[in-house]
Amino acid sequence: MSNEAKENVSEEPFVICRDVHKNFGSNHVLKGINLEVRKGEVVVILGPSGSGKSTFLRCINHLETMDSGMITVGGEPIGYEWRNGALWEAPYSVVAKQRSRIGMVFQAFNLFPHLTVLQNVTEFPVHVHGVDPKVAEKRAMEILEKVGLADKALQYPRRLSGGQQQRVSIARALAIEPELLLFDEPTSALDPELVGEVLNTMKSLADQGYTMIIVTHEIPFTREVADRVVFMADGVVVEEGKPSDVMYHPKTERFRTFLSRYL
Ligand code: ADP
Ligand code: MG
């Protein structure tokens, strides 16, 4: 499916980020990020190192707290709850539940080394969501089939290539039946020859209609798969739009310079 002809993207915003600010001490890292993502939409965030991309992604599932602003996913404020007409930091049990429908894939695969591939994929559904182990296993096998790793189910992660390990961590993110998938530079730690298989897996998820926010430096992938591109620099969104517009005709010198480094 090309990004021009997507029919499953709804009009309603599913993820809403309003004026998100974050400081690390005196370092003002996010300076008022605004972003809306619709269900089924694939948004790629580009930007130089240190611009706050990871911090922003981590704010979305509350791995990082915000200093001000608001983020809702499916109408729910993640990490906060309404009490007496105001938003308050939510207790961990509430956060865990809110986060339970957001899958995240990191640059480092973070697989459990002492668990098999299959156990890595069933771990969260069984131990966090209380899914029956047999049910979780059946579903995990279907997901491993989808990412082309069913034959590795009983292997341990260290026996797999980096690309295969990253596909297992994608399978693990899918196992919680996510409504939103976040990817933070999922191919940056891979040898160049292994990048393609991971990008292909992600493209297939995009084609299946998953809602995805992806931080990456893979420009051709972005052109092909993104419905929308967001260029971040110094903690703000500098430009955003369809890849066919903004990536071919960047409006700002900053984005033009950034792109020219990758082409
Ligand atoms: P990007 O992902 O775009 O490279 P980051 O979000 O990782 O950017 O980092 C943005 C800024 O925030 C950097 O200056 C970084 O040093 C700082 N930073 C990120 N995480 C932390 C942290 N946990 N503690 C202190 N500073 C941090
Ligand atoms: Mg980062």
Describe the largest sheet.
6 strands, mixed
* Shape type: globular
Q: Return the CATH class.
A: Alpha Beta
Fold-level CATH name: Rossmann fold
On the 0-100 scale, what is the average pLDDT? 94
Helix content: 25-40%
Query: How many H/I helical runs?
Result: 9
Sheet-strand content, in percent, reads 25-35%
* CATH architectural designation: 3-Layer(aba) Sandwich
Indicate how many domains the architecture comprises.
1
Ligand inventory reads:
adenosine-5'-diphosphate, magnesium ion
Look at the structure and name the CATH superfamily: P-loop containing nucleotide triphosphate hydrolases
Structure class: alpha/beta
End-to-end separation: 24 Å
Q: How many β-strands, per DSSP?
A: 12
Order of helices and strands: EEEHEEEEHEHHHEHEHEEHH
Strand line-up across the major sheet = 8-9-10-3-11-12
Low-confidence stretches: none
The radius of gyration computed from the alpha-carbon positions, rounded to a whole number of angstroms, is: 18 Å
Write the layout of secondary structure elements.
Elements: E1 13-24, E2 27-38, E3 42-46, H1 53-60, E4 68-73, E5 76-77, E6 80-83, E7 86-89, H2 92-99, E8 102-105, H3 117-127, H4 133-146, H5 162-174, E9 180-184, H6 192-207, E10 212-215, H7 219-225, E11 228-233, E12 236-241, H8 243-246, H9 253-262
Parallel strand pairs: 3-10, 3-11, 8-9, 9-10
Antiparallel strand pairs: 1-2, 1-4, 4-5, 6-7, 11-12
Helix pairs in contact: 3-4, 3-5, 4-5, 5-6
The chain binds adenosine-5'-diphosphate and magnesium ion.
Residues 24, 27, 29, 47, 49-55 line the site of adenosine-5'-diphosphate (ADP).
